[in-house]
C-alpha cells in the first residue's frame, strides 16, 4: 500500500450523562478520527486521547500536531506500507502512543478491507461475542449510584466497575454489595488517586471480594503497586502504568499487578495490545479490554481484541448507548450481557454519513 494522505477529523459527541472520574468530569467526548487513504483503499483510525492531558500525557491538539508534523510525513517517506511496518517506522519518535496507535489502526483497517479479512480473525479471536462490563462514574450520592448500578444490571451488564477516589471508595462499594449481593462481579478504578500511604485504607476494601482494584497509585509508581499488592488481598490491576509489552513484562516480574487492563490506544495500537495479551497468557495473568469512550469504530476494534482467548474477564466494552444517544456507526447493542464481534472486512463497521457529519467539528487533509 502507498499512502495518499490522512484526513484528520475532530468530532464532539455529547454524553448521555456526565462521566466523573478522580481526574474530572466529562459531558462531551471530543475525539480525533483518521481516514487513512491509500492507493488500495481507505481505513479508519480512532485516536483515544482526551481534550486535556489528565488521563495520560497525550491530548487531542497534541496528537493532531504530532500526526501532522511528524508521524504522517515519516510514513509518507516509507516505500510500500503494511500495517505491521507502521510501528517500527515511527519508533524513533518518543511516546505519542495514542497518535501512533490511531494511525496503525487506520492502516490495519485499510489493509484488511482491501483483502477481505476481519480484524477479529487477524488478531486471533476465538469467540463470536464477548461479555461486557460497565464503568460507573463517581456520583453525588450513594442512592444516585445505586440507581445507576440497578439500571446497568437490568440492562444485563456482566460486571460493574465503580470509579473511586479518596472520600468515595469504601462506602459506595459497601452499599453496592449490600444492595446487589455478593455474586455481582464488582471492581474499582482509582485512576491514580491514592498513594502508598493509603495502603491501610485501601485494605478496607478487602472484605468486599472485589475482582480487582485498577491503578490505585501514580502511573510511574510501579514499585509502589508491588508494595501495595503485598498489603491488600484485592488483586491489583494496572491501566495507566502499562504503556507497552515491555512495561507490562516489568510490572508482572515485579509483582506490581496480578491482572492487566489492555487499552490499544494507550500502548500504541492493536498489534502491541496483542503482544501484551500473549505476554499475559504466557505468565498466567488475566487480561481484559479497557475502554476510552470510543465511538463505534474504536468499539468494534476493542470487541475484536476482547475476543482473544486470554481476555478472561469482561471488558469496558459497553454498548454504544452507555455513552452516546447516537453513535457514528450502527450502534453496538447489548444482547444477554454480550456484544457481537464484527465479522466484516477490517473493523467490520463504517461511519454513517449523516451521523458523522452531525458531530464533526473540523476536518483537515494532510497529504502524504
Ligand atoms: O469506554 O467504558 C469506557 C470507559 C471506561 O472507565 C473507563 N475508562 O481509566 O479505565 C479508565 C477510564 C479512562 C477514561 S475516563 C474518562
Ligand atoms: Mg482505568
Structural account:
With 368 residues, the chain is of the alpha/beta class. It folds into two domains: 3-116 and 350-367, 2-Layer Sandwich (Enolase-like, domain 1); 121-340, Enolase-like C-terminal domain (TIM Barrel, Alpha-Beta Barrel). It is 35% helix and 22% strand. It has twelve helices and 13 strands. It has helices at 60-76, 83-90, 97-115, 119-123, 142-155, 170-180, 199-202, 222-231, 245-254, 270-283, 296-306, 353-359, and strands spanning 3-21, 24-38, 41-47, 129-131, 133-136, 159-163, 186-189, 213-214, 236-238, 259-262, 287-289, 338-340, 360-367. The strands form three sheets. It has a seven-stranded parallel beta sheet with strand order 5-6-7-8-9-10-11. A four-stranded antiparallel beta sheet has the order 3-2-1-13. Strands 4-12 form a two-stranded antiparallel ribbon. The longest helix has 19 residues, at 97-115. The structure holds N-succinyl methionine and magnesium ion (MG).
Question: What secondary-structure arrangement, pairings included, does this model have?
Answer:
Layout: E1 3-21, E2 24-38, E3 41-47, H1 60-76, H2 83-90, H3 97-115, H4 119-123, E4 129-131, E5 133-136, H5 142-155, E6 159-163, H6 170-180, E7 186-189, H7 199-202, E8 213-214, H8 222-231, E9 236-238, H9 245-254, E10 259-262, H10 270-283, E11 287-289, H11 296-306, E12 338-340, H12 353-359, E13 360-367
Parallel strand pairs: 5-6, 6-7, 7-8, 8-9, 9-10, 10-11
Antiparallel strand pairs: 1-2, 1-13, 2-3, 4-12
Helix pairs in contact: 1-3, 2-3, 5-6, 9-10
This protein binds N-succinyl methionine (SMG) and magnesium ion.
